[in-house]
Design goal:
Blueprint (H helix, E strand, L loop, with lengths): L24 H13 L4 H28 L11 H5 L2
Length: about 90
């Protein structure tokens, strides 16, 4: 009887697009070492960063929408610097 061993491979169900980046070789090596210490690939770390970076726009838009909804609120006067920093 023979036992076959299969490696688990990550399969994407969504379309994935490849990009090419350039960076200092030493920086790439250091980044790979950090990723390896976190049990991740540099690709996985980059995808996490890219998702975080892209979501910033949504944060800005949410902030602007909130400020628009609250623009009717008026304290009736300007506060002094000391009042603004009073705790």
């Amino acid at each position: 009887m023979h036992c076959l061993e299969f490696n688990t491979k990550l399969v994407y169900t969504d379309f994935v697009k490849n990009i090419t980046l350039s960076a200092d070789a030493d920086l790439i090596d250091k980044a790979r070492q950090v990723a390896k210490a976190e049990h991740k690939t540099l690709n996985a770390v980059f995808r996490e960063w890219l998702e975080s970076y892209a979501s910033r726009r949504g944060d800005v838009e949410a902030y602007r929408a909130l400020m628009e909804r609250l623009k009717h609120i008026d304290a009736g006067r300007k506060f002094t610097r000391d009042e603004m920093n009073d705790r």
